[in-house]
Amino acid sequence: MYREGQATAIHRADYTAPAFWIDTVELCFDLDPAKTRVLNKMRMRRNPDVPAQALRLDGEELNLARVLVNGQGASFKIEGNQLVLESLPGVEDGAFDLEIFTTCAPAKNTKLMGLFVSNDTFFTQCEAEGFRRITYFLDRPDVMATYTVTLRADKAKYPVLLSNGNLVDHGPLDDGRHFAKWEDPFRKPSYLFALVAGQLVSREQRISARNGKDHLLQVFVRPGDLDKTEHAMHSLMASIAWDEARFGLPLDLERFMIVATSDFNMGAMENKGLNIFNTKYVLANQATATDTDYANIESVVGHEYFHNWSGNRVTCRDWFQLSLKEGLTVFRDQEFSLDLCRDPSAKAVKRIEDVRVLRTAQFPEDAGPMAHPVRPDSYIEINNFYTVTIYEKGAEVVRMMQTLVGRDGFAKGMTLYFERFDGQAVTCDDFAQAIADANPQSELARLLPQFKRWYSQAGTPRVQAVGHYDAASRSYSLTLSQTCAPTPGQATKEPFVIPIGLGLLAQDGSALPLQSADGSTLSAPYTFVMTEATQTLTFVNLDAEPVPSILRGFSAPVVLVYDYTDAQLLTLLAFDTDAFNRWEAGQRLAVRSAITLIAGDADISGVKPLNDAYIEAMRSVLRHPDLDAAFKELVLTLPSETYLAEQLNVVDPQRIHAVREAMRSQLAQALANDWAWAYETYGDTGAYRPDPLSSGRRALTGMALSQLCLAAQTSGDVVWPGKAYQRFKDAGNMTDRFNALAALVSSGHPLAAQALPRFHALFKDEALVLDKWFALQAGATDRDGNILPAVRQLMKHPDFSLRNPNRARSVVFSYCSANPGAFHRRDAAGYVFWSERVIELDGINPQVAARLARALDRWKNLAEPYRSAAREALVRVAAKTDLSNDVREVVSRALAD
């Protein structure tokens, strides 16, 4: 049953230091799936800065067998999920030893938090509060200790025994068992603890760092997957080299290990020296992984390795500071990927892809019931705050810091940050202060108190720009005004510090010099730092009204409002030297066409939403001899249904879907000859390589094939669907094969019915490939209301399991969260399905259930009858009395007025 006491909100303002410190931890595990024994010996001491009080240790689903203080039995009591020791005899003024013996049942742990078993292998996940499911502990990030860990297990069943740090001893035990002893010399919080035990094999690589030290790198996987680990190893080596070169941060342990598991709630976890990964972000070869998989592996491997310093060596004082490590480390992995792109166009593509994630996921979060600052003020369940706001928006906040101090200045700030705080648990304020202190003459140092509003204020600022050209004075004035809408708990917002990249173009597309009113020429690239509610810039010596290029490179996470004419947008699309704004101009043109039709009430059947000028502009992009293929693919990709919905106050999902499908069909037919040219021109990429240039060619080829199959559905042409099916059969890599399959499925061609079972037969033993197969069907275009029945059928497939997070996401999330045209049904059946799955998943894995629950965050924006039906589904879930805190917090906030 649901217990009211579980739902207590935790507030950042209530933070107090722990009453006790833990200096050393010795853990001994006797590993058994049904009953694992954990002996926990801690050297503890009172915190002299906190008034004397009882020792309270966190624990969940543990069987307590023994508690000793200084080797003697001690009185204790259990209060809720805490072990309480009120009297600690003889230790009031000093340190003491505490010994706790408990057991747990890893095989029954479907939450995948704490110690659990997956495919007969032991794994742990302790962030944020999973360590308390292993032993009683001060399970909070500001309690840091050194750990010595001994693992004991049956050698035949669990030949590999891993934990954090360095291996110091190992050997046989009686009865066919063996042990391994690990020491981590660095103090860490409990959330960074890890162990792994099972039948694993490893790819190994020895490297020498710049400081001359040798290190062993290991990637552990299940037998049979070793051939899919080369890319992950190369990504790890590149990450180590980059962090040393860019920030002077070396690998600090004798070895660094990555382990992959198919049962994991997250993408990966940065446990000190022993990173545990979802297999999705480790395993890849050209037969089973797409270009996107390769790019994601490189990014995530980098992200988790970079945490070794930004998160591990310096960690969070409390969970409200989560973006201290996550926002900073997302920025670091984005910079890593950008630096690996040697071609400027590849860098532009990477930046645009990052911005698309922000605008299609984080901006809606900022506008919904779960809106929260980058540094939240309160939470009920911390797992609900591993969000795009903490990660992606947090990264943009760090990026703005770099903009304000410069690349070299930011590196200086990072050096100072680690010098000041190595081995400590600190706050977002500490980080920002270090960057400013290292650059005392910078704009950041001058504006730091105001800049930190990015940490404390929720919501996405809107920057309204209005331009005025005065022919008599040959001057152009640009007035910028910033506002930010109210969010839950924050009715009013103070002005932010907003760096805005600016440029001016002539009507013929040539770049214009930026001359200020005093006649001085501003250096390019120029960034204006906006600090007030309204500010005006004036540029002189202009013979005609310019076309402004505003927010270049997406220099701040804001919504830019400017009343561009179509002609101005076409100029930016054709000529802007800033790749982001060139792409953005195309997006604005498409959004404008879509919104005009969606917001009206005219019959849209058979309508052609796109005008001739847009079609010709897209043809010019597609045929442009100098543009990179990956950039072309981005420009030619229409804004998503989710992004279009965010531009509307009242959302009719079916109308949005119909209009976007009409746009897609029109582009397919109008550019049919051009798509055919692109397919033939870019189709042969030679031997498979996952580099940006080759990946871009495959992306554009895949788009062309998809469009040609879509056009064929209207014209009755059988050639291109036939070519797609042939490519599906003959492809030498997963990217081309899956693109061909997706082209058949997305166009609704009958050949898809032959290709789908053939694909399954080819890859029935490849779990990650089957995830793609499931997701493609659950995310397919809904033409006759047939997707929901197909999804229900997929859930009955022998290869489907709701208990596996990857498989659950591939079907249920692909339908509910990523297929709005199919999910938002007028008969409400999609919402009924959602409520059933949220409740079902909550009994298995509350963390995954809470993620699914967020599919209806924006229900209040829906038009009727969707709005009432969505609310009814939310109420149905909220009425369950035994909901987890994870799900209850999400649905309660969604239903709040």
At the third CATH level, what is the topology name of the domain at 4-199?
A: Immunoglobulin-like
* Cα-atom radius of gyration: 28 Å
Helix content: 40-55%
Tell me what the CATH architecture of the domain at 4-199 is.
Answer: Sandwich
Count every helix, treating DSSP H or I runs of 4 or more residues as helices.
Answer: 28
Distance between the termini: 26 Å
CATH class of the domain at 4-199: Mainly Beta
Average pLDDT metric: 96
Q: What general form does the structure show? A: globular
Biggest sheet strand line-up: 6-5-9-3-2-12-15-14
Major beta-sheet overview: 8 strands, mixed
Low-confidence stretches: 1-5
Strand content: 15-25%
Full CATH superfamily name of the domain at 4-199: tricorn interacting facor f3 domain
Output the structural class.
Answer: alpha+beta
Number of strands: 32
Describe this structure in words.
It is a single chain. With 897 residues, this protein is α+β, with helices and mostly antiparallel strands. Among the domains are: 4-199, tricorn interacting facor f3 domain (Immunoglobulin-like, Sandwich); 315-456, Neutral Protease Domain 2 (Neutral Protease, domain 2); 462-556, Aminopeptidase N, middle-beta domain (Immunoglobulin-like, Sandwich), CATH 2.60.40.1840; 763-897, Zincin-like fold, CATH 1.25.50.10. The strands form nine sheets. It has an eight-stranded mixed sheet, with no helix packed on it. Helix 4 (344-366) crosses helix 5, helix 16 (672-682) runs antiparallel to helix 17 and helix 17 (692-715) packs antiparallel against helix 18 (719-730). It is globular and about 90 Å long. Mean pLDDT is 96; it is low at 1-5.
